[in-house]
Fold each of these.
Amino acid sequence: MTGASETRAILAVSGVDKTFTMHLQGGQRLPVLRELAFEVHEGECVALGGASGAGKSSILKMVYGNYAVDRGSIVLQARGSVIDIAAAGPRQVLAARRDAVGYVSQFLRCVPRVAALQIVAEPLLQRGVRAAEARDRAAELLARLAIPERLWALPPATFSGGEQQRVNIARGFVTELPLLLLDEPTASLDVRNREVVIELIREKLARGTAILGIFHDAEVRDAVARRVVSVEMFAAPAGAAA
Amino acid sequence: MNDAQPLLEVRSAGHRYGNRYGCRDVDLDLWPGEVLAVVGESGSGKTTLLGTLSQRLSLTEGSVRYRLADGTVADLAELSEAAVRRLWRTEWGFVHQNPADGLRMHVSAGGNVGEPLMATGWRHYGRVRAAAADWLQRVEIPVDRIDDPPVTFSGGMRQRLQIARNLVVSPRLVFMDEPTSGLDVSVQARLLDLIRSLAAELSLAVIIVTHDLAVARLISHRTLVMKDGRVIESGLTDRVLDDPQAAYTQLLVSSILQG
């Protein structure tokens, strides 16, 4: 973690364990992570590395408050406040999502009937940005991500996978939050759009955003990430269950 | 959702039918602007809980405290009947599963929306009609249907009219009992989107009972899972649905049909 000591940790994870208990399989316990610990500083991008199934997506979901943790802390520096997501109640998690942490999931969860432009503008509207400005900023991102203007007024349910993912990226990048979580942001994109996403990530980093991501594409990872946290170092020992 | 104090504080609430509990030991807080889903199978006690919180069923045990518009906090069990009726006219709404239970089916749409205003003292006919027309528009009912009674409307239109009739008086807390379950899927989506955007826009607190987890996911911030009259799991909606802890919640989530 050298080289990052001059800057502030936006995210500090320490001592986190995660186990899934599968009640439908006779209460089988599936330990995934043990003593997970790492930091992400402002203006740096950290990649999560490791084989599929190692728990990379679970880590993003825990940091976003979407998954519970067994123990440990996930401390986020929001603007002027500090919150431990691992211990936070629902309203605090929602406040952290508003003020501190954004998340680009692998797939766009389509809200029926809502137009693409509106989906991208919504995070700004929820934070009190005026409608006209929110629409302008959403339009700018959709244009950069090569979503044809004739699609902006349509709900993305009928878009192609790549188009949906670009709408998803636009929605995640439209706000300026201290921490951004990216789960395979370039998975279904062509080369040109991949370059745009790399550019967008670099712009965020230059503005001080801390980024934690999963990038299977080594080229993208090397282009943006300062270091890789190997999730396998924190694998729960097999048989630690029971 | 920024208010420092909850609108509704429920502690150890229960309702007993004879010697059997319909719901029991329920604790919850609800803040302005917050949508709370109560999910569970039929017979889980979710509708009894809604009835108990909304004073339609007696509170057999525990307490329900409500922060009135003037800032004072009232213990609902101690309010007079007149005070409760006043709450229903000015601060609370109830959206029934069957629109016929919440509408006057043979009175014009405009009358259905205007009536609650007149009950709170509006007297000027032109203003009542203008407000009704405005609300028809907000719930996406063509204004030229203002003189038609809901008995001539489709199911989706009736449900949107019921929502307009409830929201026209700017309530602070709205109870909803399976508001979309009688509707076609495409009509459901439209109604949910409407509820979602109106709740955010008006900073409404909503308690919505549903057996449909997709409905909970789409519009609620928090979810309570009920079984056998008790809350067995609660929390942030996406966490309850994506990382359910209780065996019963895992069963419910795993039973969702994948589209």
Amino acid sequence: MDKIKQFVTDFGWPRVIIFFFLLALFIAAPFVGVRIDASISDMLNRFGQNMLFVLAMVPMIQSGCGLNFGLSIGIIAGLIGSTMSVQFGLTGFLGFFGAVGFAIPFAIIFGWLYGMLLNKVKGEEMTIAMYVGFAGVMFMCIMWLVLPYTAPTMVWGYAGKGLRTTITVEGFFRQVLNEFLAIRIGDSFVFPTGMLLFVAFCTFLVWLFMRTKTGTALTAVGSNPDYARASGISSDRMRTVSVIISTVLGAVGIVVYQQSYGFIQLYTAPLQMPFAAVAAILIGGASVNKASMVNVLIGAFLFQGLLTMTPSVINSALKTDISEVIRIIVSNGIIIYALTRKMKVAK
Amino acid sequence: MKQIVDKKTMVRRLLIRLALVVVYAGLVMLTFVLGKGHSLIIDNKDLDDGTLTAAMDGNLVSIDGREASEVYPGDRIMEAVKGQTHTVAIEDMSGGNRIERRITLPLGEDTLLVSIPKLIAGVTPAVEVFVPLNVAPPSESESESKNEFTSPDAVPLEPLPTP
Amino acid sequence: MSGNKTLGRFFSENAVVIIFVLITLAAIPPSGLSIPYIVQEMITRLGRNTFLVLALILPIYAGMGLNFGMTLGAMSGQIGLILAINWNITGVEGLAFAALIGTPISVMMGYIAGAVLNRAKGREMVTGYILAFFINGVYQFVVLYMMGAIFPIRNPAIVLSRGYGIRNTLNLQGVRQSLDTLFMLKVGPYLIPVATFIVIAGLCVFVVWFKKTKLGQDMRAVGHDMAVAQAAGIPVDRTRIIAIIISTVLANFGQIIFLQNMGNMATYNAHDQTSFFAVAAILVGGASVKKAAISNVFIGVILLHVLFVVTPRAGQNLFGSAMIGEYFRQFIGYGVIALTLVLYAWKARQNTARARESLRGGTAGGAK
């Protein structure tokens, strides 16, 4: 009994509750007419789509910069990359990797500037990150209207100037990863092998990096700044590195997301994405100053599972669309729970 | 941090809090009664049971001293009022006859019918509940948000539906 | 030499205000708007928004930063208005009724918010922001699903066609501008809602008086240094909660004043931008996360809203697109909050670094 209690306390009550809730939804699904194989397929899809965003949270948490509410900055870099890829008419794998290739330099520059800013404001990073992200998105909104894109699928019909809000990547790099080595079982189950492989590879890279000298230095800066300083590690430099990595992951993440979802969403779409990633990693067991790969996997899985199952099951059961409200309550409730935990001082 | 206070202060605190609750309840009721709005339908039609007929000539009807409206036989006008008691002034357009009547509106109902023939004849109650045939829902007009932070076609800052 | 230094310090202390004034002045000519129009807009918006911004003062005073949780108070006021419209209570009485109904709700909300923020010391602002989203979910649940279904609504005109849940837009015809027109004065070509300003003045007097009371002094001590206040016997947690409760109740009233001027209410969205506008205004007015005065409120509301009136038009005329003006407006709004927070945090670090150096006697500190 004690061991179970210990396990639950370690794992965290909210996580346990969400896990059982998810299980209950799965059990209830067939009774309300929701197909399990379609649901699992959906869940895997969304899991892969969003993994990199959740992964992007880890470096900054580990280095003591808190939750990266400014992930929008990385997403913007990714959007620049993918719009450029479509503009140049790159298709298939070339389109996907082209987008990533274009995005990464932007992400590095943005991340570097953003990191420098955060270094000047140690202690209040999260709020500032949020507003810098918002301001950045708004600035890009102006840019999307003004930059000289010309590809006919991307710009508004009449004037021919300014990008559309949603741009399809059908014919460019839609589903290139998902379809790669995809496993189909029956009518409604698709295992997006390519995407999951790619995402797993990225996770592995990050895991590897955290074990390198730089990676451990990064963690030291976050968990024990005095020791880090005594060892001659530059806290500012490590923090900037973590921000750059986070931004790059965000950039690559949105390209993966887009190829799976099928559309490039510009303008104000990036505003809400950081919050989902924050909720996910917190669900996964991370705290404001400590996160691991396990947190990423569990968190992304549980959160996206929740997001997939809750609307379909509850809507079918109640014959009404209550999913949005539930999503708001659950994801924000989780974040609040995490923010109100006592943390070990890591300044 | 519980502070130890003597009984006298505790009783005093309780009384003050009770008084506040009473005052609060009183204010809620007061604003409710004073502010309750009603839609008055002023009606100059023959009564269904044939006892009274509509005032033959046109009349100028004014409620609470507002601008008078012309009410001809068979007419119906609508006015929005606030509060429970009102004065209805009916002036005969030709003869110069002027009658003033006070009416009291029941608190619970929203739309009420005031019959002019009844008022003139002094039959009480001259006010009865109006049962509409159909409540037409108002059209969902696009909210003119001149001060909202977002422009009409920008996506507002709310959670976007996840695919 | 010292003259330069004081000039430099003046600029850094008031950087945000100066930047704002410059941008606004630059944007007025290309906007093509006449000065009387701008002045009238300014008067209207002062009446509409000042109360909400004033609600932010006490939490800053108590050291809890910018109270993004004021949205909870706004939601309470909206519930009050929904009920007032439901029972067709009109005029100023309707507003008072809504405010009265909203008060116990906002006290409860404020208590919850205060308790949560107490458990997130050091992260109040982010927590308050997320808390507002969370309670927004609860609000939507109540207003979209429970009202009309579990909570009886007698006015069918405000219910959605499916039979339960309140409509997206509520026409506040009955109480529209009731407070404003209560005592409207025409000075030259300008209309001034005197009654509204009297209410605002009343709140200012309250704030000034409150700061002098023992509770007010306690808040100041807590805001200054929680440990010292605790040692002095002040119930720190309780004082913080009270600050948030008062702020939430004021936000309740403020949102009602705001909505009566607007004339209609976007049931599910009206409160989304409330905290953001108010926070931007007080920061633009020169307040910081730790210090806010009543003058900051008025200056901020005027500067922010004149900019909001002028920039979209300027953007439209300069770039030929109304959208760019809109986005520019939002960019400036978010940017100014970010800028102020950055400046404040940077200054705070500089002060601690300076203090640390003086302690060490000026010897070179360790690696950065």
